């Protein structure tokens, strides 16, 4: 199946800053939840559908920062990974993600992010 998400393909897209490749991993009706300092667990940012997720990926991948997939694990219909992002000024963002997969695509994803101050 084309564009089936695997840990190695995800690593390549994340570290390559490739929004197009990342977006291809999502199901058309995918949902992405983000929990961070601006979006607490009771009010997460929720993006519904591939177009909304692609717009977020385009924004993130257009920033001058390096992305590194630190660690990951894929088991059955779930994939979890940790990512560190570093801006040119040294500010770091750490993200932990849990993904639910269906038919080789990301159906649901929850990101928990922490930023340097």
From TrEMBL:
Domain SnoaL-like: 12-108
Pfam families: SnoaL_2
Name of this protein: SnoaL-like domain-containing protein
Organism, scientific name: Kaistia defluvii
Lineage of the species this protein comes from: Bacteria, Pseudomonadati, Pseudomonadota, Alphaproteobacteria, Hyphomicrobiales
């Amino acid at each position: 199946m084309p564009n089936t998400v695997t840990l190695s393909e995800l690593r390549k897209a994340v570290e390559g800053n490739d929004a197009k490749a990342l977006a291809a991993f999502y199901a058309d009706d995918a949902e992405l939840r983000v929990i961070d300092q601006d979006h607490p667990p009771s009010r997460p940012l929720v993006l519904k559908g591939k177009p909304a997720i692609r717009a977020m990926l385009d924004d993130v991948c257009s920033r001058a920062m390096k992305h590194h997939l630190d660690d990951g694990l894929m088991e059955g219909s779930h994939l979890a990974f940790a990512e560190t992002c570093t801006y040119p000024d040294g500010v770091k963002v750490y993200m932990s993600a849990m993904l639910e997969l269906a038919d080789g695509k990301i159906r649901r994803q929850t990101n928990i992010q922490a930023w340097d101050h």
